[in-house]
Amino acid sequence: MITFIATDMDGTLLNENQEISEANKQAILEAQQQGIEVVVATGRSYEEARFVIEDAGISCDIVCANGAEVRNKQGEIVYQAGIESTRAKEISDVLNETGIYFEIYTDRGTYTENYDMGVELIVDIFTTANPNVSEEQVRQAARERFEKGHIKLVDDYGVLFEDESQLVYKFLVFSFDEKQLAEANSRLNKLSDIAISSSGKENIEVNSIEAQKGVALEKLLNDKGLSAENAMAMGDNLNDLSMMKVVGRPVAMGNALDQVKEFCPFITATNKEDGVAKAIQEVIQQPAK
Question: For the chain, how many structural domains are there in total?
Answer without folding.
Answer: 2
